[in-house]
Amino acid sequence: MAFARPKKREPVGEAGLFEYAVGTLARRMRTVRDLRRLMKTRAEEGEAGERAMDAVIVRLKELNYLSDTRFAEDYTRVRKEHEKFGKRRVQQDLMMKGVEKELVASTLESAYEDVDEVGLARQYIARKRMEKPGGESAQKETVRTMNRLMRAGFSSNAIFKVLKAWELPEEALAGVEEGGVDSDSYAELEERAGDSDSYAKQNEEE
After folding, report:
1. Average pLDDT of each block of 10 consecutive residues along the chain (206 residues)?
2. C-beta contacts of 112-120 below 8 A and 24+ residues apart
3. How does pLDDT run across 59-114, given as a tens digit for each residue?
4. Fewer C-beta neighbours within 10 Å, C or N terminus of the chain?
5. Are 80 and 111 in contact (CB under 8 A)?
């Protein structure tokens, strides 16, 4: 038995897009780029659809329903204060969500200005209930811990200090050096891998 094809959604005009956008923003804050991506699935094709989306975005901004600045500030606060992520992870996630580079930089500079990165990394470890590496697999567990902390956005210097404070055996710290490859390099590699929210979503459990 052949499956029936889903009916194609009829495109809507400016009024319909505005109603859809307001409902979407009521459920969750979005960036301008993210909201435009969602509206595009409902808008008319071509210039007419683009003009309608532009008009909706302008109106939403005027009503203060849509703001990348507010999104960046709120997103950063949650990721830092509640989830204990490091600056570099939040930077990467915001850029993948379409926030402009300059806005990301200014938001993070303000949010992380007085943050003790080593202390934040320890809070992240406690939140995730990560245990001190030990036993015969101490070296392998140390590398796994280091990689996890890098994915969480902490610099190599901060990670090194956290690991050193655990007083691990020298062999467990082999290859882990203060001032080594920084997580900035990791972020750049991931950013080049694709401009989407997929990376952020697959790492929500970190």
Report:
1. 61 96 96 96 95 98 97 97 97 96 97 96 96 86 92 94 85 62 43 38 41
2. 112/80, 112/87, 115/80, 115/87, 117/86, 117/87, 117/154, 117/155, 117/158, 118/158, 118/161, 118/162, 120/80, 120/84, 120/86, 120/154
3. 999 999 999 999 999 999 999 999 999 999 999 999 999 999 999 999 999 999 99
4. N
5. yes
